[in-house]
Amino acid sequence: IQLIDDQLELVQQQINLLTTSLSSSTESLSSIFRAQQRLVNYKIQRLNAITQQYQSLSSLEALSGTTLISN
Predict the structure, then answer these.
(1) Which residue has the higher pLDDT, 42 or 21?
(2) What is the pLDDT of residue 39?
(3) Which pTM value belongs to this model?
(4) Which helix H or strand E contains 59, and what residues bound it?
(5) 63 by DSSP, 3-state: which?
(6) In this predicted model, what pLDDT tens digit does every residue of 33-46 receive, in sequence order?
(7) Measured distance between the N- and C-terminal CA atoms of the chain, rounded to whole angstroms
């Protein structure tokens, strides 16, 4: 998940740079859209990874008959 978080940060920085470049007419709008699509894809990957962690934890708890993490 940390790797995905790092990628999210990098893509957001890229979007910021592309937006600035667009303002000075050196970058196309499609480049910003592609970067935003990558950002959405990383967010989906992050949510899938978190979901998988909770599903794995739930399976382990079911097998062991105990609660492994208490909130």
Answers:
(1) 42
(2) 95
(3) 0.73
(4) helix 29-64
(5) helix
(6) 999 999 999 999 99
(7) 20
> What's the alpha-carbon Rg for the chain, to the nearest Å?
19
| Per-residue confidence (pLDDT) for residue 44, from 0 to 100 | 96
DSSP 1-58: -HHHHHHHHHHHHHHHHHHHHHHTTSS-HHHHHHHHHHHHHHHHHHHHHHHHHHHHHH
> From CA 53, how far away is CA 66, in angstroms rounded?
17
Region of 28 please: left (phi>0), alpha (psi -120 to 50) or beta: beta
Three-state SS for 60?
A: helix
- Cα–Cα dist 11/19, whole Å: 12
Q: Does residue 71 register a pLDDT over 70? A: no
CB 18 within 8 A of CB 31: yes
